[in-house]
Design the sequence.
């Protein structure tokens, strides 16, 4: 395989309506990349990156909870006590809202000072996380590719608020692919970041090579997706009988 930047060109085959975005977490200021000239929520930065040249952001660019989950700011007791969620009709009681802060993934304080965003076609670095906005057909191929060579299961983790933590931080810290469906996150829905029914898939850097290799090797449309239900049932029975005879012969 070549460099991961070259290998990621396999994603062009999907013809995504919105390009995948590479994200890099940095301690020091990046060189040769312009700073974003506006303030946005972290989820909105993903949308911005899908339609802009590469850019970087720092603490002053953020609205919402981005600095908290990125370790750029200290927690605010008023929010983490759960007082806001019930008043926004998102939680029944403060204790329910408070609970999520005990498992929301977040970076260690002051270890991330800058984030770099780049659409796939302008990517000049190996991303820490690659985020893909896919329709269900495209998502099925990506998720199948993740299990194609390893057999490992995939899971989706998230919360109805602060979904950005699960898209950006969780894959980076855990090394696990994660995904959500647009419209499930209250914040993204309120900010009208994406239309409903897209799957946002976050892939950490240490899974990218495996995923790319599988996408290059496997059939994107397996044979059972090209036959009718009855044809698949008959073929499955035929294969089972052939395998049974094969092992009986030994």
Sequence:
């Amino acid at each position: 395989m070549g460099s991961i930047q070259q290998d990621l060109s396999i994603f062009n085959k999907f013809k995504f309506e919105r390009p995948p975005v590479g994200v890099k977490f940095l301690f020091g200021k990046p060189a040769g990349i312009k700073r974003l000239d506006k303030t946005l929520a972290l989820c909105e930065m993903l949308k911005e990156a899908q339609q802009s040249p590469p850019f970087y952001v720092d603490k002053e660019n953020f609205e919402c909870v981005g600095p908290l989950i990125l370790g750029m700011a200290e927690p605010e007791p008023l929010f983490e006590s759960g007082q806001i969620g019930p008043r926004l009709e998102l939680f029944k009681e403060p204790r329910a809202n408070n609970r999520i802060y005990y498992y929301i993934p977040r970076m260690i304080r002051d270890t991330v000072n800058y984030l770099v965003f780049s659409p796939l076609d302008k990517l000049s670095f190996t991303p820490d996380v690659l985020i893909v906005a896919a329709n269900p057909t495209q998502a099925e191929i990506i998720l199948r590719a993740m299990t194609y060579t390893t057999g490992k299961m995939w899971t989706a983790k998230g919360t109805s608020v602060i979904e950005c933590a699960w898209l950006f931080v969780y894959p980076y810290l855990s090394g696990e692919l994660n995904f959500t469906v647009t419209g499930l996150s209250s914040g993204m829905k309120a900010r009208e970041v994406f239309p409903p029914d897209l799957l946002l898939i976050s892939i950490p850097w240490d899974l990218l090579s495996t995923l790319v290799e599988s996408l290059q090797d496997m059939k994107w449309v397996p044979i059972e997706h090209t036959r009718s239900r009855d044809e698949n049932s008959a073929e499955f029975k035929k294969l089972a009988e052939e395998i049974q005879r094969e092992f009986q012969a030994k």
The two ends are 38 Å apart (CA to CA). Residues 20 and 87 are 35 Å apart (CA to CA). The beta strands are 21-26, 34-35, 55-57, 114-119, 129-134, 178-181, 199-204. The mean pLDDT is 93.
